[in-house]
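Item description
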Amino acid sequence: MMKALLSNDFSTSSGAEDTAAAQWRGTALLRPGILAFEGEILPTELHAHHAVQVMAACTPISIVDGSGVRRHGTHIVVPTDAPHRVCGGASHGIAIYLDPETVAGAAADRRAHLHGWVHTLSVDPAHGQLAEHVADVLADLLRDNAAAGQDDRHGVVTAALQLLPDMVKGGSVRGSDVARQLGISATRLTHLFTEQVGIPLRRYILWLRLHIAMNGVMAGDDVTTASAAAGFADCSHLTRTCRRTFGLPPSMMSRDVDWDISL
């Protein structure tokens, strides 16, 4: 059930959502700044999340925003923090959550505000694998962005990417902590990291925590243990992060889902 993907973030009771999330079967993908699912899309209650959401389906989806305005189409982009509900789903589709502070997320959010929520994106969820669908959406969003083609990384950016996994496991990490170890100013590191990785350093750290927690769950840890290993203050911190970012409970990390996880 796609209720695992599109849950009611305004609800004060999470039990039903967690059950739905645990029962959902499909494929999912996690990358820094990107969470994606492929499967059935079902109606939802009104909810909101910080991530920009891109949905594509084989048949039209109907969405109503917080003001009651209805959108209908096979490709829909929901801007960051926008209340919405799915009132008409689809038997097969994809839902991609993009951090709005990434280059791709900012591009998607800008499109939704400038051109409306209904779009024609270069993705066909009826053919190919989820990773290919995500790549197609990113290529579409970034086609006019010259910075997206940069491949060469500054040495301190590469070093930061290598240091961060062990640093975040120890708890709170600030950009200044990373910069100090690399012998560079925090301002310079932040600028280089954002420019060359496509996501601000502080947001990358958050997504890295989610990545580590997910790997822990996939290895057999319960969510509490995985939260601690990823440097979250506690399980509640992970829960708040998941709901605020995606409108989803941590039970989206179910081992019943076919996950593709990498950095």
Remarks:
- The first helix runs from residue 15 to 23.
